[in-house]
Design goal:
single chain, alpha/beta, Rossmann fold, 7-stranded parallel sheet, 8 helices, 43% helix
Length: 253
């Protein structure tokens, strides 16, 4: 019997890849939904005896990914698992510039990947597992920028603020159910990923906070992807997980 089922988006690089690597333990089942697959994850799963499926989906079309997830869950019995968890980690930063200079297609992609797809996947996951008698959890990876505004970051801030608020609504929905899922929108801290490279390299005349991000790197204030993944999974394992639907991993340190 598989110990635990995990569904993870954006698991092919950065913090998402680090989360996937740490979830690949003997007996676990991990579904990674990303644009690209990782041969190294396949090799690790074979080595440790974990069940891994890597689904190639562009989450700008979250509907197709959510339908695939719903169909998969509906043909698997809950007694195969001790728990089921969805981790919505995928996200993108569109071109860094004032909203007045934004490309409409770029804005649409950021909102589809960062907000629309997580909502669709939550709906599919929770709907398909609603009658499963096992613990179910949802972790939506948010950001401090969902809770404070920043110039030239309108789309990213809006997506993360929307994620925080729909998670609050979701928590109210699930609290009314006999075996409702525990849900949290979790800010993971400031992490040394490609996203940080984008922010540090943005034109200073379009991004007033560029120097602040450069200083974070220069002063060693960035968390490694592996350490950030560990903090997220430790937070997920807390007995009070879900008691606050909008959280920050740094509050638990």
């Amino acid at each position: 019997m598989s110990q635990h089922l995990f569904i993870l988006t954006g698991g092919s690089r950065g913090m998402g890849l680090a989360i996937a690597e740490q979830l690949l333990q003997s007996g676990n089942t991990l579904i990674c939904i990303s644009r690209n697959t990782q041969r190294a994850l396949h090799d690790q799963a074979q080595k440790v005896g974990a069940h891994l499926e890597q689904w190639s989906h562009d989450l700008a079309d979250g509907a197709s990914a959510s339908i695939a997830l719903k169909n998969w869950l509906q043909v698997h019995a809950s007694d195969n698992f001790q728990s089921a968890t969805l981790i919505n980690n995928a996200g993108v930063i569109p071109a860094i510039a004032p909203l007045s200079q934004a490309d409409p297609h770029n804005l649409a992609m950021a909102l589809r990947v960062g907000l629309e797809a997580p909502m669709q996947l939550c709906a599919a996951f929770l709907g398909a597992t609603e009658n499963w008698p096992i613990p179910r959890k949802v972790v939506n990876i948010s950001s401090g920028l969902g809770r404070r505004a920043m110039a030239s970051q309108a789309a990213y801030c809006a997506a993360k603020a929307g994620m925080d608020h729909f998670t609050r609504c979701l928590a109210l929905d699930e609290a009314l159910k006999p075996n409702g899922a525990k849900v949290t929108s979790l800010a993971p801290g400031v992490i040394d990923t490609d996203m940080q490279i984008q922010l540090r390299g943005a034109p200073a005349d379009k991004f007033p906070d560029q120097n602040g991000f450069q200083q974070l790197k220069a002063t060693g204030m960035l968390t490694s992807p592996a350490d950030a993944a560990t903090r997220i999974l430790n937070y997920l394992a807390r007995p009070d997980f879900g008691s606050n639907p909008v959280s920050d991993v740094r509050d638990a340190q």
